[in-house]
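Exam prep: given the inputs below (a chain plus C2E), describe the expected output before reading on.
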Amino acid sequence: MYHIEFDIAAVFVTLFILYYIIFRKGLSKHANRIYLCMLVLNLAAEFSDITAAVINNEPALGGLVIQYLSNYIYLAAHSILGFMLVIYLFYLIGYEKHEKAAQLMLSAPVCVILILLITNPFHRKIFFIDENRNYAHGGLFFTLYVTAAAYMVFAIYLIIRHRLVLARARASALLFFILISFIPIVVQIVFPLYLFTMFFETMGLMGILFTIENKDDIINPTTGILNRYALQMAIDRVLQTSGNVLIIVKIPNLNYYNKMIGFSNMNDILQKIAKWLEKTCNRYSCYDCNRGHFAVLLEAVDDKTVNALKQKIIDQFEKPWGKGEFSLVFPLQIGVVHMPDDVKTMENLLMLIDAPFDGKTSTELDVVKAISDYERTVLIERLIDKALRNKSFQVYYQPIWDYNEGKVRSAEALCRLVDDEYGLISPNEFIPVSERNGAILEIGKLVFEKVCRFYQEGRLRKLGVDYIEVNLSVVQCMSKDLEDVFDRTLSKYSLNARHINLEITESATAGNQTILIDTIERLRSHGFEFSLDDYGTGYSNISYMYELPFSIIKIDKSILWKAIHPKTGRGQPNAVIYLENTVRMLKDMNYSVLVEGVETLEQKLFLEELECDYFQGYYFSKPVQEEVFLDYLKVVNA
Ligand code: C2E
Ligand code: MG
Ligand code: MG
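Solution:
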């Protein structure tokens, strides 16, 4: 008497899984479709197993044809399942495009089994039903076991071999669920009348559902298409083969549009864009990588297809998205990345995807340049690190000419990074990098320490220098221990803070003003004075000038150069008016005014007429090393 309770339970579980995945959609990818096929086969095997068992138990309940048919369906569906599992793994690993021949070869054993089943009525070597309507195995039934075992072993081999591509956690989950399907083979020996097989196989399929087919962690909740994590997993796989292309599609500054038309309207538009991309890119996978950055992965594709798709996207973005007053035309940046020719590492690829839209070009993203810029940044980071370890940062000094006194009373300390292999790296390059990775805190300490040590020696003071200007990055201003670090260094060299002027750039004032004002106030209470650097470079906001107590305003060299260019001596009349009025206004506001970038006598004479207080520039001296600066002072301050 066969027990069908486990089979009935298995039917319910299979129906539950089917309901779950059909209603959650997302079955467009090949692997998902194969999973669905496996479920349907599983259901067929369960029903036929139940029917066969019921009739085997009680032949009066069904005719001989139904008894035969149900056994045939069961054995066929069950045999195909093993083969489907291997194909499913092929798709997960990403063989789909490349290994058609292998798939064909793999189907040979299951084809043999199917032929044996079809011809069974003639040879009765697989199974037969005797005159008492009892079901019995034939002489070749073992071939079914052998084939099923062979597919299982091959599946296990595939999982272990490609565990990195599958991601370790998923690989071990898959192994676990496949091994679960083996359990009934052992249990069935002890309880031959209990039909466990389908139940455990269904459990295995359910396990796969929750580990592999679970979409929650790979779907972007806003747009409903695959997310950045899914892309990361796919890239892991495709970076190893050639002929794959990633099209990156970026829409600028989402925050700005969010504010302009509101979050939910913007989300609607993003959804539209995502759905359009998915529909247009049809058989290729589309990913929403957040912040208006999308990617389309084209596997095993030729240039013609890529260009056609790219043009389609460009054309579509020339039309507005959204409806009515919320209809917008977005500037678009699109980049085509050939893998692995353009990028070889996941890091570089993710950088390309994540890097914010630079807004300079409306369409083409220069992939090669973006990567070389990024690699340069990585190099600079390495050089900064090395220079910090070897203590090879240097500080140069550029004299500041005091017009009223007719001598040099101060200098600006400027940091220099000289590498044995790469030569001189400009601070314009390494300071922004160090601000981004935090190394500026160490560099800042180092510069401050070197300046204090130099001043404390006494030679500067003897030669008439009252104070040194030290650049302070906004990142330093945000650091909690800045005050302590400065304090400790000053006491180490028994130096008074009035010998240091701290320069803050105008751009710093665009950030968090409360913290900045607080830091400046605290440092002022220690005796530091402040200068405002690079005045007029675009962040002008007069309100902070009322809030922040600067003693010197340093007008940026670009303002001077537009009025009188150092090379041509010419300038724009309006730039002259702007410079004259800026100097006058600042002086009326009781600031001392310094102009940077004075390179020619003509510039100097012009500024003298405007009665600027301080001049700094190559006309006087470039930034130089300590000893050179001292020699210079001996001449000009004699
Ligand atoms: P900055 O503070 O505005 O410094 C003035 C820059 O203008 C210096 O460039 C200086 O060499 C250059 N300069 C001065 N006079 C002339 C001139 O007549 N002609 C030309 N063409 N250039 C002139 P440098 O040393 O390359 O520094 C660039 C920027 O890097 C600095 O601009 C400053 O913002 C930053 N920086 C340099 N050292 C440090 C540092 O120790 N800490 C921080 N936070 N920033 C630093
Ligand atoms: Mg400066
Ligand atoms: Mg400056």
